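Task: fold both queries, return tokens.
Query 1:
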Amino acid sequence: QVQLKESGGGLVQPGGSLRLSCAASGYPLVYLAVGWFRQVPGKEREGVSCIGATDNKIDYVDSVAGRFTISRDNTKDTVYLQMNNLTAEDTALYYCATKAFYCGNWYLPTAFASWGQGTQVTVSS
């Protein structure tokens, strides 16, 4: 079973940037689609982005399209989420998750089998 570990979160001012990393172990990431989700207390977990395995198809939620970029380096078993022009509304605990091959229904947390522990992103002046 794949294990996932997120890193790269922190405190950043509005308009700033962060790059999150999701490192996988225990299973080759090349066969897995990887999604990024975020959650704030009292709200449901929200799908942010997904990148497919062999097709590298990419999806974003509308609120981050044009600001966030997902990418993967299968040689390092790592997926990245570059986040630019951050706003207070991006403050959340960010998780990565995996499912087999494709990003179908990627916005549904129940579609993903394995999850990391999360990394906190706080956007504040």
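Query 1 returned. Query 2:
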Amino acid sequence: QVQLVESGGGLAQPGGSLRLSCAASGFTFSSSTMSWARLAPGKGLEWVSGIHSDGRDTYYEDSVAGRFTISRDNAKNTLYLQMNNLKPEDTAMYYCAKQGQGSTWLDGVRRGYWGQGTQVTVSS
């Protein structure tokens, strides 16, 4: 049974930082492509960042490129998202996802497995 448990969300000021973690179990994490996605009030699901199984290749949505860094520790079955220079528009529920088959990163998130999410609020 796939389980993904996110943590690390909270309240941050604009320009601040947060580090999200996702503990994975129930599948072979080291062989799985993973993503972070977010859902903000009044908006649709947005893919944020993705990483291949070996961690060498990483991908970012344009609005977070240069501010967010995705990484993984396959020995600990854990996915991370370091978020720097946070902006109010980054406010959302953030989800860790095991990618499913899809023609796009977002499609793969929708067809995959999600965790329960962790709330990130950026406000002064």
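Both queries returned. Flag for query 2: The CA atoms of residues 38 and 94 lie 4 Å apart.
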